[in-house]
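Human: Note token order:
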Amino acid sequence: STTMKLSLLEGWTNALRRGFSVTMMERMGAMTRGDWSALGAADQKLMQSRGITEADWHVWQQATPEDWNGQKMLTADAIAAVDADATIKNGAIAKLLGFIADESEYASLGPGLMTRAAMTQGLRRGTLGGELIRHGMLFKSFPLGMVERHLRRINEIDGAGGKLAYSAALMTSLTLFGAMALQLKDIANGKDPRDMTGDHSAKIWAAARQQGGGMGIYG
């Protein structure tokens, strides 16, 4: 835990999620100016999968987005100011914040409850089984979270074409960033960059796919 803090990774990750969350609050402020029926089928399905209903959307619509540095944000305070029953408002606030928090962990990956449950199998800390499985799964939360979250997102997309396009874009981008990471590591270690088109290109691209996390838990 101390190592993660000293490496600044934790602060960097949280900053990325905050940045994404702010951007999404601005987007929600714009989207909620329209009716639920005006949403695309994919957006409706995504929100419904997170427990958001048309009634929640109606509460969000009544909120006046807050002005933040010239951007109109749908915030918890904006919803709290709506003239509606407190229970209804609290539910709408919880769903907004939950939705944004969950999406932010796609932008900067974080293991969700499903991933944690898969990693611990319900075994408690301090028990022999619990400590053994935590030891074995140490540092596996990222690849497991990657698999769980993106398989869930692919499953939520309607049609084989959409699923294929999402999968291809994900694998391609991960492989390209993996290749860039490999080259930068070689340069940092005083080595020449690898030839991505030479005789060993297939092996190098396979390494790039693994480096980028494109092979999931196997990577």
